[in-house]
Amino acid sequence: MKAGIFLHSTVQLDSDFFAKASIFIAEHNEKGAMGFVINRPFPRKLNELAEFSGGVAFPLYDGGPVDREHLFFLHRRPDLVEGGTPVTGDIHLGGDFSQALVHLNNKTLAEKDIRLFIGYCGWDAGELETEIAEGSWTATANGNLF
């Protein structure tokens, strides 16, 4: 398994947070995996969070149950947002969030360029592979992130 794949929950997960979840795996290494639920809009916009109240009303997504006090982002504009980690193709994980905010507010970054998440999904080494083998997830190389 590698970063850049999409996971889709199976009926085995229909009774928990991951019911009907599609997840993009942004990081996968010897320590484990990190991903974001990509099909679950968060009920508030970016400007509805106190520290971003002066900015634009940009959509947020419920990225996962871990570290819900922080924002995370995926983007495909390394020319505008420095410091991101390449994931696959033109998709990057994180980077200089202050640069991203400037470009969101002046509308040079659009929904087709960046996705913001509250929280993330995380697995320890081997845990995700075990869940896939048990039938909790199906993995595909294809999906629509933006």
TrEMBL record:
Pfam families: DUF179. Transmembrane segments: none annotated. It comes from the Bacteria. InterPro entries: AlgH-like. PANTHER family: TRANSCRIPTIONAL REGULATOR, TRANSPORTER, PUTATIVE (DUF179)-RELATED. This is YqgE/AlgH family protein. It comes from Chitinophaga chungangae. The lineage of its organism: Bacteria, Pseudomonadati, Bacteroidota, Chitinophagia, Chitinophagales.
